[in-house]
Amino acid sequence: MVTVEQGKMRSFFEGLVVLAIILVLIQTFLEDAALIGGWSWDVRKVLLISGFGFDLFFTFEFLVRFFSAALRRETGEYLLHQRGWIDLLASVPLLLFHSGPLMAAVFLGGGTFSGLGGVFNVLKVAKAIRVARILRLLRVLKVFKKIKYTGSVMAQRHVALITSLVVTVTVATLFLVSLVQPILPTAPGRAEVLETTETRLLQRFQGTDSRQLAEALPTLLIIKESQETLYSRYENSYYRSMFGPTDYQYRQIGSYDFFLSLKPELVDRAEQSLAFFVLIVLLVLVFLLYYSPHFALTISDPVHIMRRGFAENGYKLEVDIPTRYRNDDVYRLAALYNREYLPLKERMKHQEERLHSDLSLDTIGDILNNEE
């Protein structure tokens, strides 16, 4: 038995979760937009930390719901029918494989370019795990579930199910392709070509042609030898303002230390992520604005009219049958309802009224005879 206080607490928690979902979707969008737009590192750092906080919150939410269901022996019900698998996929993997390692890179590798180069090798992790954030788009389904877009319970359940399947398959496909693509034996992409070119040019460096190397290699930021800076593309103040630990990598070739920008590759990934984000939102909107009304028109509305006709004596509205759908099973049943049941219902009503009227006249006649 749920008390009033427990009901209020549950409503507050559900509202907090929906608010957090909306905020994390905005944060995901802004995180990519910040990279593409070249925002300062201070702003991007706040977005990364907030993303880590959201992943912590959603992991806690999943654990609370999971153990609560386990105590009620409803684990399967929660994971399958209440879409707990969305809570799982959009929380724990992101914390372990995306925002958690990013926070380690930010705080453990967070120095300036003048620090030890070897520390920054950990930053390569950011490139490998960034695809995991695609899973965060599954949170769109949790908001979609809260929207009451039709009065029909059947339509609500059906559209929510098919939307969940389509969006999940899309997100899973994008995620798997992003993971598998780097190891497929295909033609080298832009990132691979760039890395090969970088390596070839760096290996040819002799220490006297830093300007020429910088012109040939736009990603080159700093060249150092024995902690002495031979070349720097920008001032240190610019690096502190615009570059974070996840934006560059360190390479050591011979006696030279090279710092290279990862921003071109990160921007490419951000553009892909934004495209995925827009795709998922468009899919949800298509189901919400087009398929849901279509399902209501062709399925739940005719069923609703026939149910009321069977249940209510005074209800005699016919089902409107669109010509293009007249061969659908539901509308074939509706045609039978219009043609057979409604006239039969009307005849039975007239018979009952006539029977009632006849009984009333007979009763009056009997009363008059008895008085005589």
Please give the largest β-sheet.
4 strands, antiparallel
Q: Calculate the mean pLDDT score and round it.
A: 79
Runs in which pLDDT lies below 50 for 5 or more consecutive residues are 110-129
Our estimate of the beta-strand percent is 5-15%
The residue fraction in helices comes out at 55-70%
Q: What is the CA–CA distance across the termini?
A: 69 Å
> How many distinct helices?
13
* Whole-angstrom Rg: 33 Å
Kindly summarize this structure in a few lines.
The chain is of the alpha+beta class. It has helices at residues 4-37, 41-71, 75-81, 84-89, 92-108, 124-129, 139-146, 153-180, 190-203, 210-216, 236-242, 263-311, 329-371; strands at residues 220-225, 228-232, 248-253, 256-261.
What does this structure look like?
This protein has 372 residues and is α+β, with helices and mostly antiparallel strands. The chain has three domains: 4-187 and 266-293; 190-265, no CATH class; 312-371, no CATH class. The chain has helices at residues 4-37, 41-71, 75-81, 84-89, 92-108, 124-129, 139-146, 153-180, 190-203, 210-216, 236-242, 263-311, 329-371; strands at residues 220-225, 228-232, 248-253, 256-261. The chain has a four-stranded antiparallel β-sheet, covered by helices on one side. Residues 110-129 have low confidence and may be disordered.
